[in-house]
TrEMBL record:
EC number, UniProt record: 3.1.2.4
UniProt name for this protein: 3-hydroxyisobutyryl-CoA hydrolase
Matches recorded under Pfam families: ECH_2 (PF16113)
Enzyme class: hydrolase
UniProt keyword Hydrolase present: yes
Domain called Enoyl-CoA hydratase/isomerase: residue spans: 15-335
GO MF term set: 3-hydroxyisobutyryl-CoA hydrolase activity
Catalytic activity: 3-hydroxy-2-methylpropanoyl-CoA + H2O = 3-hydroxy-2-methylpropanoate + CoA + H(+)
Domain of life: Bacteria
Length: 346
């Protein structure tokens, strides 16, 4: 009999969650989402549980939601929107969780994986942790409430991550605010054991914390801010194209990366992340629902998943294929409530 995809146990005063789908890089299935939501709801009212710890088996914390399953369900399938309905409500529940919520992250943390970690109170990154929001490369957008924290990163780093799908190692993740602590992966078992017996989460994490300087950010901060602060995607690309000096190679690489993404997704993500600066978290999640419902009726999501995850030819045929061909009215349609209303949140 196969093991469950997600495991739950009580350990001292802690509710311990273990993502247990290592062969799929712990990608979140719909069943995992519903099971985690149920456990969190139960533990929220249990006085014996003081905190929640989330960890994972294998070489990834969580590579995102199981987008391939959504793709295979097909355009217009009921299960398709149900996945995001339940995922986004889970993200909102984690953000509002009344108890400490500690994510122990090693390996990839992408997309939906960020949604079940970054919204919690404490995010501990180990040596091999890599954060990314890669959705514009599959014709989607940075969802799971990520616009809330992306829009609040310093120096426009969040917009850089959202458009270019930049990968941040743990020092950069600390610098940007994605991680709250750095600790060695070898200490994770000890952290779990100590948290289960202690009421002072910060003290436990401080005992195991280690320095993790930024890998690429820091010297790039002012440049990222100047390039991504204003204007449409075309203006950002134009500034990248003419950048000279020590960061010229980074600029050329970033521009080439952005040009490979879905033009529609780029326009949506730029507007979304900038709008999120003025929104609270729940409104960011509601906006995600609006955008997702529209994108799931379009072309680029299915083409992006086909090219990256199914056929793996890495050659998506976007429609429209260029930024200047994207109809502004099409973008506007992503930001209005669907016919059956906004996402209801608990």
């Amino acid at each position: 009999m196969a093991e469950p995809e997600i495991l739950f146990e009580r350990l001292g005063h802690a509710g311990l969650v273990t993502l247990n789908r290592p062969s799929a890089l712990n990608a979140l299935s719909h069943g995992m989402i519903k099971a985690l939501a149920g456990a969190l709801e139960e533990w929220k009212y249990d006085p014996a549980i003081r905190l929640v710890i989330v960890r994972a088996k294998g070489r990834a914390f969580c590579a995102g939601g199981d987008i391939r399953a959504v793709y295979e369900a097909g355009r217009g399938a009921p299960d398709q929107t149900a996945f995001f309905h339940d995922e986004y409500r889970l993200n909102a529940a984690i953000k509002a969780y009344p108890k400490s919520y500690v994510a122990l992250v090693d390996g990839y943390i992408m997309g939906g994986g960020a949604g079940i970690a970054v919204h919690g109170s404490h995010r501990v990154f180990a040596e091999k942790a890599i954060f990314s929001m890669p959705e514009t490369g599959i014709g989607f957008f940075p969802d799971v409430g990520s616009s809330f924290f992306l829009s609040r990163m310093p120096h426009e780093i969040g917009l850089y991550c959202g458009l270019a799908a930049a990968r941040l190692a743990r020092g950069d993740a600390l610098h940007a605010g994605v991680a709250t602590h750095a600790a060695p992966a070898a200490a994770f078992d000890a952290i779990v054991a100590e948290l289960a017996e202690s009421a002072d989460v910060d003290a436990v994490l401080a005992r195991h914390a280690e320095a993790a300087p930024a890998e690429t950010l820091g010297p790039l901060d002012a440049t990222i801010s100047a390039i991504f602060a204003t204007g449409p995607v075309e203006s950002i690309l134009a500034r990248l194209d003419v950048l000279e000096g020590p960061h010229a190679e980074w600029a050329a690489r970033t521009a080439a990366t952005i040009r490979g993404k879905s033009p529609t997704s780029l326009r949506v993500a730029l507007r979304q992340i900038r709008a999120a600066r003025e929104l609270d978290f729940d409104d960011c999640i509601r906006l995600d629902w609006r955008i997702a419902c529209t994108i799931l009726d379009g072309h680029d999501f299915y083409e992006g998943v086909r090219a990256v995850l199914v056929d793996k030819d890495q050659s998506p045929r976007w429609n429209p294929a260029t930024l200047d061909a994207v109809d502004p009215g099409l973008i506007e349609g992503h930001f209005v409530a669907p016919h059956d209303g906004d996402l209801p949140l608990p």
